[in-house]
Amino acid sequence: MLLSFGNVINTTVNETVIDLYSLLQQHPFKGYIEAVPAYASIAVYYDAVTVRQNNKNGNSAFEWVKQYVLQLMNRLDEKQFHQPQDCIRIPVYYNGEDLEYIAAQHHITVEEVITLHHSKTYRVFMTGFLPGFAYMGMVDEKINTPRKAQPQMHVPAGSVGIAGAQTGIYPLDSPGGWQLIGTTPLQLFDPSATQPCLLKAGDKVQFVPIDKTTFNATNVHRHS
Amino acid sequence: MSIVIHKPGLCTTIQDLGRTGYRSLGIGSNGVMDFFAATAANYLVNNAADTPVIEMHFPAAAMQFQSAAIICIAGADFDAHINGNPVRMFQPIYVRQNDALHFDRIINGARVYIGIHGGLKVQEWMGSSSTHLKLKIGGFHGRMLQKNDVLHLQKNIPDVFLKKIAVATAAIRSMYVPSNIIRCIAGPEWNVLDNTAAQLFMHTTFTVTKYADRMGYRLQGVPLMEENHREMVSSAVSFGTVQLLPNGQVIILMADHQTTGGYPRIAGVITADLPRLAQLPINSSMQFKMIAVAEAEEILLSTHQLLNQLKRGCQQYYEAYRSQL
Question: Considering only CA atoms, which of B156, B88, B146, B82 is closest in space to residue B119?
Fold first, then answer.
């Protein structure tokens, strides 16, 4: 089941989505499997058979879950959510192959692109596409650049990119179409860790520029 | 105590009913394409429903049993043979040490499962033994099976003696009478389709193209719409989500799909019909049938009842024969 709050990238809307997600995780119903918060929607996965067995009032499981989620939504106002999240600092060596393209598109210098990118704190709106891939925003209008028309076959893990108003980091080697501006030495996804993903929806992120020496000394990505 | 793979077959993997709870991190569920066949295979060898099974496509793997085991073959009919003799599906089979299993040809369906009494020793990751091919983790070293791989069994010797062969009911087998009607419910962006497009979606026939695998089925039909570049912010998708592509064609997301996507979700295949969809081979034709959510749930309930009956029957059967040991 999907609850949609429109087709927008907006912090207030996304805060509602993530608060609702936290409430659902804290108050799961019988048959609840999991939920996926996105920019402006939340998908609730449930086992319809279990929901029906626990609620023999003749309604469909879909209707029952809908009522349950709507009732949780009403409780969003009662509680003080939006606790300040920790700000995660992510070092970036700005060596991306598309820096010059972005600079040329906006008639600014590569240095300005780099400065504009790391002089803002970003919000993780959602994760998706790849394990641990965080969609962050919003980048300054002066570096807002659409995806490449033709996706690249191979983007190395750790690559930092821009797509429209979004910025993100590839946690794994993958095909991809984002404009690449740099590389982080951090591991965004570690399958052997209890919490395999460094970033999750709702986090705040600050990029910190580093030089090549620091990057090489701390890089965990074998292929970069 | 093990099975040796002599021929790997095409995309042979270890799967269970999937990995849940981590979609919000971008980690999809994976798992079997046909939950009905996998569950039935497990029940027929007296396993829990989510015990890891071997999922195979055609050409399927050829393998040899290094020790006795009780197995069940379910799903697509690929004309299974043990030591050259045809064997039946949807029933427990007692295999002896050195018995060789192979599959001859496609009679129907697209995916076959082998359940093994007691299960296999495979790698569990984030609560599931399903193979995550992209992350190279889970199942058998996170990859498709290769020649000479050795799968270790959890149990040394079957602890039941099969004097009499249990056979799944006609109702179970009837699930595998090939059908190309795929029932679905309206998706969040159903309204992207204008009236003509909606009529085309519901009343024309689609072909499963060769781009049909564990990630998704690309279908070919009359384009539903002219070039459509409706931009959507990314949102969650599921196994069975029917997306409208910019060229007017549709794709159905399957077990290895990504967790989120940006194409309009015009429909969702009902859970109870995912097994039927998983058994549609490349080049087969299919048609969508729209139904209401409540009806989809009723169909799912009856599917579960069928599986529960099978489970109870098998438990009684195994109890009866265990006591005769």
Answer: B156
